[in-house]
Amino acid sequence: MDSYFLSVLSGLLSHIVCHRTDPRGRLALLLVLFLAPVLQTVIARPQYVLPFFARAQFIYIVTLCSSTVAYRLSPFHQLSRYPGPLLARISSWWMVWNALDGKQHIRFRKLHEVYGEIVRTGPNHVHVCSAAAIRTVLAFQNQWHRFEGYKTLVPPGGTGAILTVTDPEDHRQRRRVWDRALANTALADYRSMMDARITQLREALDKRCGQEVDISEWLTWFTLDFMGDFAFGGSFDFMARAADPEHLHSTIVRAIGASDLFSKIPWTRAFIHLLPNPMEPLLRVSHELVRKKKALGSDAEVKDLFHHFNQRPSDEELSDDALAQDALIAVVAGSDTSSSVLANAIYYLVSDPFALEKLRAELDQAGDLSDWKGLAKCEYLQAVLNETMRLAPAAPNGVVKESPRSGEVVVAGYILPPKTVVYIPFYPLFRDRRYFSAPDEFRPERWLPGTKDYQHDETAFIPFSYGPTGCAGKQLALLETRAALAMLVQRFDIAFSPGYDPARWEEDIEDRFILSKGSLPVVLNTRQL
User: Fold this and answer.
1) Which amino acids are annotated as binding site, given as ranges?
2) Most CB contacts within 10 A, which of 16, 188, 455, 478?
3) Structural domain boundaries in the chain
4) What does each C-alpha distance from 304 to 4, 129, 318 come to in angstroms?
5) What is the mean pLDDT of residues 281-291?
6) Structure confidence at residue 76 as a pLDDT band (50, 70, 90)
7) Which residues does heme bind (predicted)?
């Protein structure tokens, strides 16, 4: 049989096998790429082995790729009915390219404006910008799985953090520990930590009144310090040093950005671990802190996250690696998200003096800002935070799940085949005029009870995600952002630094899985009450 024909036939057969089995391991991928040409060369026993193998390999790869592309573009593909960019339908590498400059959230919104509420953004991927999709995709944990791409975050031989657990039952068991550590009864354990860090932030800014201050940087240090207290009982002290000499935050930003890119191509997990792990410096710090905490035992006076982890039943035992991974996730996810909300809130308030004065009047009337229950009753304060999270969600590209592995499913009226990767993108959804009138304008009043001047559908607003895999730290984050923002607004007069162009703030914002912000230079002055 002609060797050309065998190469073409083996390429077509490999496409069929890959389509049905979706090989992921390193060995499986190497076999797919090289086994057929190697066997063909061995069987043919040509006089010139290398030229024969090179030709067979080339024809095989060209056939495999051509067959794959043809199928993905054909009307026979189960997602062919849904529109999207041509290159996105061909390869998931389009999503990597789309994310490189940090502006994927902007482009996804434009795609929804062009194509509608469902857009095919990968060979087996769709973005669904619809409130009707939320319950279907996020509520039924037993049927929908976390996207396999999350596993690219797991280091070789590592357990992985709760974020990387894709099996619903495994996630449910792991989540129970977190739910106890972040239950309302446990939040009181963190109050003294939070109050101390807010006081430290206030005193540090008091000393810098009248000077230019990068409030974005200080809020990052504040949230990192607090999350270090929360996870490990105190470890970082960025505010005390007014610096990040170990470049911990920049390492976090780079690591998250790299992980976001590779997570879009799950099979790269088989090879990515051959490269230097961008999370390695952070994991070393986390493992060292776990060892120190374990040496102290479970009778430590400080009731931090680690303390609650140690109170788990024996059937929920976590390895040291899992503890280190989960504690690191707490610091990373809890610091950058809260600091971005606070920094964006300051930006929007300084840009809108009327909203700033209205919030300040509410806080002045509320009196004691150390009263958490009192702050929770400040309606305009929560309205400002909600509007900030609507315009600048901490996770702009939202959440991603994989549809049930057998049988079709209907999402927001659209029929999807098994194992479809479904994104619910927060940035386009929260700025969709079907749910929020004047979607690009900062209008906290839309969140006040009884307001009828706006199209306002809160079912489309899920900044902390939704369902069993929603953010476990939601209540802690709300307490933190309320208390910190209230202190800043009531304590200081805030203005943009002379010469600073406020338009730069939104230009500098990037989507690196979580929102990445730039500098926000302001001048603070103590208010005369």
Assistant:
1) 471
2) 478
3) 135-526
4) 66, 38, 16
5) 77
6) very high
7) 471
Helices (H) and strands (E) in the chain, counts: 23, 12
Average pLDDT, the chain: 88
Task: Give kind and range of the element (H or E) at residue 219.
Answer: helix 215-232
DSSP state string for 127-169: EE--THHHHHHHT-TTT-EE-GGGGGGSPTT----GGG--SHH
**Upper half-sphere CA count for residue 318 (Cβ side, 13 Å):** 29
Amino acid at residue number 332: V
Q: Taking the CB of residue 238, how many other CB atoms lie within 10 A of it?
A: 22
Distance CA 181, CA 307 (A): 9
| Confidence at residue 185, expressed as pLDDT on a 0 to 100 scale | 80
Q: What pLDDT does residue 86 have?
A: 98
Distance separating alpha carbons of residues 65 and 75, to the nearest angstrom:
18
Residue 214 CA to residue 261 CA, distance in Å, equals: 29
Give the C-alpha separation, 107 to 119, whole Å: 12
Q: Is the Cα torsion angle 148, 150, 343, 334 positive or negative in sign?
A: positive
Give the model's pLDDT for residue 317: 64
Cβ atoms of 319 and 159 within 8 Å: the answer is: yes
pLDDT tens column, 22-55? 666 677 777 778 888 888 888 888 888 888 888 8
Q: Are 425 and 397 in contact (CB under 8 A)?
A: yes
| Placement of tokens 């077509």 in the chain | 12
- How far are the Cα atoms of 209, 368, 430, 487 from residue 364, in angstroms, in the given order? 21, 9, 31, 11
Query: For position 442, what pLDDT does the model report?
Result: 98
pLDDT for position 243: 92
Which residues are part of a known binding site for heme? 471
Q: Strand, helix or coil at 320?
A: helix
Res 141 pLDDT > 70: no
When computed from its CA atoms, the radius of gyration of the chain, rounded to whole angstroms, is: 26
The pLDDT assigned to 176 comes to 82
The residue with greater pLDDT, 453 or 404, is 404
User: With b meaning 16 or more CB within 10 Å and e meaning fewer, what string describes 476-487?
Assistant: bbbbbbbbbbbb
Q: Does domain 135-526 have CATH number 1.10.630.10?
A: yes
Specify the amino acid at residue 231.
A
Mapping DSSP to helix (H, G, I), strand (E, B) and coil, where does residue 11 land? helix
Instruction: Give the tens place of pLDDT for each residue, 373-385.
Output: 889 899 999 999 9
With 0-12 / 13-18 / 19 or more C-beta atoms within 10 angstroms meaning exposed / middle / buried, residue 31 is middle
